[in-house]
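Let's practice the habit of predicting before peeking. Look at the sequence and jot down your guess about where helices and strands might fall. Then scroll down.
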Amino acid sequence: MFCTLNTHKVDMDKLLGGQIGLEDFIFAHVKGQRKEVEVFKSEDALGLTITDNGAGYAFIKRIKEGSVIDHIQLISVGDMIEAINGQSLLGCRHYEVARLLKELPRGRTFTLKLTEPRKAFDMISQRSGGGRPASGSQLGTGRGTLRLRSRGPATVEDLPSAFEEKAIEKVDDLLESYMGIRDTELAATMVELGKDKRNPDELAEALDERLGDFAFPDEFVFDVWGAIGDAKVGRY
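Done guessing? Here is the structure:
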């Protein structure tokens, strides 16, 4: 279903994305029990944050306390969303799933088909990070990161700067606020596209060219521009 870095637990903040530290450990989580849950949409916001593994599986990354979903005990963080009202979501990206959930009419009941990750790792203690260092100066420092791409080869790169890390964090927060998703790789791409742009219009043009499928609203682009600018001058 998905992999986590440096923990066997279902910790969606530790999901394997497009970058792997050279000293990271990877834990694979496989499919467990399937379940079908009826949900009454009493509010516009369900309180879900969605992420995906980049391979066609979307997951519940976070459930807001006190939200509609928070009151349903059968739904948990880490559950894979297979279908909504019988419509298969396999192959969909997280933002597509979030959009479908948002478009469901308020005051109606809908059905979620979910698969939870198997709890096979619960009895396994977390492996310590004191592995044997690899040879080579970059490998030995542990400051390198292996970046995976859907197109092209994987490459070893330097870790993001302090400015980039903070900007990525702020943009990721905006993605959750506006779209109900968290995606550090998407946020990193947006920061990379925006860090040298002189105004929001240039950023909007770059986002449309590279990430046009998202159809980001103007107010979101403006807030992303502001978040990158704040991080540049140290306004954290």
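How did you do? The CA atoms of residues 145 and 157 lie 5 Å apart.
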